[in-house]
Amino acid sequence: MAQTKTYILGIESSCDDTSAAVSLNTQILSNVIATQKIHELYGGIVPELASRAHLKNIIPVVSEAIKQAGLTLNDLDAIAFTKGPGLLGSLLVGTSFAKALSLSLNKPLIDVHHMKAHIMAHFIDNERDRKPSFPFLCLTVSGGHTQIVKVSSFQKMEVIGSTIDDAAGEAFDKCGKIMGLVYPGGPLIDKLAQNGDPKRFQFAKPKVDGLNFSFSGLKTSFLYFIQGETRKNANFIQENLNDLCASLQQTILDILFIKLELAVQQEGITEIAIAGGVSANQGLRDRLQDYEKMKGWNIYVPEFQFCTDNAGMISVAGYYHYLESEFTDLSVSSEARSISF
How far apart are CA 191 and CA 36, in angstroms? Predict the structure, then answer.
């Protein structure tokens, strides 16, 4: 069913970004994202507000994506959307819109796994044209997920390690909140860490069997440490902010790389990719480059615009489903958590 030119509309609404993109095979023609700023007031995502904002944003975002691609809706070959995992209310907006559009245009409907799409971002056409070879290991790190995935083909992906509690991105944001940083705290911690001493403070590194992760103990350790120090000095955070950020980031990266190294040894694979929102973290990128030099790994990092939630990765993932005629029907439902990998 493959065509010389296949146009896929991708729709992403798993969390707080409403995004639509159009791809021509694996080339992204447009990638429009509407970010919701209101959550900064609450220090985290408010699901009800997120779903309401998606309702407001989805039509103009899709319209702009079609316009920027220079197409009409009838030019599309299929509609791809994020089925899950994510916030259920947010997912429902994108799923319902995609189903309605598919029905009205009589175009195939494709459901996409959000975390698989993050991995597929590596196969978006780019100027570097450097893509991982199968099999490869992908460290997927976001606000809701932390996983090591063995990727054997476009269709065959296996989670070989996962967090048993909190995700690394959540640890960044929650610790940022403890320090009084605006939400999301992760990008700001990354920025401040560049001017700090990563060895100044020590925080807990929970020990978990196998390739799994845990970050809840780190958050608790960080909270108790900050509470203890601020009781002695009310200005402790302000006076040590850069070092706190650097030490926190160093601890999170240590936890990630201990398991990643173990996965490389276990699987005998040195093709290493990263994906997910935290893959935009400069500290993570720098350490991967160091490991490429020290250990001979081949490192693959997606373009910055395709690290965080975006519909470009949904449309390209949808394209590979399209090539295999992997379509769904209007009975498809969003899945917040229980979606299989």
Answer: 21
